[in-house]
Design a protein that fits this description.
- The chain is an alpha+beta fold.
- The protein has two domains: 10-161, Creatinase/prolidase N-terminal domain (Creatine Amidinohydrolase, Chain A, domain 1); 164-394, Creatinase/methionine aminopeptidase superfamily (Creatine Amidinohydrolase, Alpha-Beta Complex), CATH 3.90.230.10.
- It is 37% helix and 21% strand.
- It contains twelve helices and 14 strands.
- The longest helix is centred in the middle third of the chain and has 21 residues, at 167-187.
- The relative contact order is 0.11.
Amino acid sequence: MGKNFPKISDQEFGYRMSQFKTKMAAEGFDLVVVFSNLLDPSAVRYFTDVSPINESAGLVIPLEGEPIMCSGQACHEWSRHKSKVKEIRILPEVGEVSGVEYDIADQQDFEDLFREMKSKYTVKKIGIIGDLIFPYEIYKKLEKVFFDSEKTSAEMLMYEMRMRKSPSEIECIKKAAEIITETMEYAVPRIGPGVTELDIQADIESQILRLGAESYCMSFSPMIPTGPENSNLCMNRNTLRQVKAGEIIDIAAGACYEGYNGVICTPVVLGDIPEDICKAVRVAYEGLNLVTLHMKPGASSMELYNIYNEFLTDKGYREFSPYGSVHSIGMLECETPFFSASKEVVMLKNMAVAIDAYFKDLPWGSFRIEDTFTIRESGAELVTGFNKKHILKTFA
């Protein structure tokens, strides 16, 4: 395990806010309101380094003034401890969902905060970040106060910045990748007949923490569906089912380090491996490596999608592949942009991506092979090393 534990510097957080305000001005935004929750803590964290613990979080960014970090009541001390944005406000609308009432003197609600913004600044256009999770309770107060202002999504302004990773971000992703690689090297050999899916999850989660991760990847805990009855669930919670020899064990897990993610998915079979499983795994891994060869700056999502699907069609496995193989990774395990067949996305230098070769609903079950990459000038750099050894050795 490497002793280097990289960080995102205070200067980089300051640069992000400065660049974002430049983008705000170019697009005519006078105010941007950001919301994050436990499913997607990334937007607020990207600007402040605050990831809420048992609450949500918000951020109000006026074009002309200083940003305001919005914390719930339980997390306001944590927010003050972590935030790179210096002004912290306590607002119950981002607090615990049970509506716990804390005896804290300096609280306000979002209607008060929005009225303050309106009194200080001319606000004609408002941006929203958190398109799929932004709460009705906050939005209705935004509507009430700024009834005469345009409101629209500003999410892509942020993601335009997040697509290209800085050197520090790449180092954090590599650290997360190193942690999950070494975790797989620890956990997979411990699997034996009779252990449960939950036993395997426990080995993975405990080891990533020992190695320095802050948590499992955002936004799913380790998934270990086994056998045809569980592995055919695309997403799952693990159970007390005991694993058996000769069946598919589908391991999907990642590590989150300083807010950045590395992920590995890998199939495991105990004992003698049935030839139909062995063949499918080899084809999936060959498809992953074929896509890897074509990943470079300028490659398009449609190009990569077609290469993968034509390969699977030729091998006879296209019907078992429910989606394209490439997605972005960073502060979320799967974040914008997704490299689909319907949205043209061009790969950029210093992107981070994952290739997810997912075969579903075969007669004996389903599995994923997934690895994490950074995109360099010369092509894709693999940063998760476990599958390169495990797949070739186990399913040869």
